[in-house]
Amino acid sequence: MEISPDITAEHTSLWFSKHKILSFADIHLGYEEELRKKGIHLPTGEFEYQKRLFSKLIGKYKPKTVVLNGDVKHSFGGINDTEWRHTLKLLELITTKSEVVIIKGNHDITLAPIARKKSIAVVDHYTSGELLFIHGDIEPKKEWLKNAKTIVMGHEHPAVGLTNGVRQEVYKCFLKLPWKRKTLIIQPSTFSLTTGIDVLADHLQSKWLGSVAKSEVYVVGEDGKVLDFGRLNRI
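-> structure tokens emitted (235 positions)
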């Protein structure tokens, strides 16, 4: 679904047709291993799902650049075995077709050694024309905003709870809102083991955003199609 001119949302990705950029946020590779260390055992298969998603969308859009917008890996401390293996495999999958830009998220403190294996830098922001990509855990600096008209971020894992009066289901969603006379788009997380934070019930982490009540909400359906649900304060 086109959520802005030249910007298409599909599954949890954003395709910027003018710039030939495909963006993903909050992949959290290694999440399953961290849960296992805590004694929580889930069916495996998350990484296979993510590989299929990346292959499908890269094959469809044929991007020049793929932006991984923060929290590529999950653990805050060291690098667990799963993170090493899966991050390298994902980067191999992408780099056979496109160049890669990795934006450092708050979970990516130790990501650089893995990225260096593929000669990829980990940066704090990325610009392409009027587009600015940031993870969102810190407020963008003034010099980053100079030429930006559209800001794209992750970090928040936005989702929205929808009810039919009896039962409530929570779905991943995109939020689009005005911020300092610019358009800001918040992407949902790319991993499927958790839906995210219900923006109708919880406050966002990034206090610098202010109120998001007037955001336009685009819900990700189970089939990956994105639907326009109007303004957040009217849901």
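The domain at 2-234 is CATH 3.60.21.10 (Purple Acid Phosphatase; chain A, domain 2).
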